[in-house]
Specification:
Layout lengths: L1 H8 L12 E3 L1 H7 L2 E5 L10 H10 L3 H6 L1 E4 L3 H12 L4 E5 L5 H9 L3 E4 L4 H15 L2 E2 L6 H17 L4 E4 L14 H14 L22 E5 L3 H8 L6
Parallel strand pairs: 2-8, 3-4, 3-6, 4-5, 7-8
Antiparallel strand pairs: 1-2
Helix pairs in contact: 1-8, 1-9, 3-5, 3-8, 5-6, 8-9
Amino acid sequence: MQKLFKQILTSRVYEAAVETSLDEATALSAKLGNRILLKREDQQPVFSFKLRGAYNKIAQLSPDERAQGVIAASAGNHAQGVAYAASKLGIRALIVMPVTTPKIKIEAVQRFGGEVVLFGNHYADAAAHAETLACKNGMVPIHPFDDELVIAGQGTIADELLRQNPGRLCQYRHHRQRPGQDPYPLYGWRSGKRSHQRTFVPLLVPGDPWGAESFPQCHPGQTQYLPLPLSGAWRRFRQGSHRS
């Protein structure tokens, strides 16, 4: 844990990403009787926190690894984060996406400089094909969450959060979580954040996947926050509606 905490503090995230603001959702706070803060990850160049982990991993590759290029499987934000990070560092990036990926996401990856290969109907198919291509071409795989440097990059959110809001936080949540759903888009982010919490903030309580009844569980005066990747979702939260 101490190793990961050091990696968070010494990450190279801010060569590409920005420190995002922590804004209060006033209407939602009033409705639920607690102070709800939104971590504005929609302010990142790729409109998602995924850039943090992707860049931190790619920036620390050796010269030989950079020359081989990077490869990732993703149908969304990780793909864009890898493409943007690799382009900024002058590295070739190959992104394997399912054939069912919306055109707008494919074009976003291409706009950020990534080469797109469409394969399979599901993420698992694309991930397996990416692994095959990585072995065949000698490219470096960039996993969306199962990598210490990716986790450390996402963990910089916690460092920002604790500096921006030094009081005790009751819960943290993601706007896409639903009752009974494991929040798969957040593994790397959540792991990095928890390593930071356990070092500095042992009283911070990770939130469960959220239903309408679970948000008001904090005692009055405590704070909850959400990392928010999309500007459309931000507008809905500002209007007091947290259902997307």
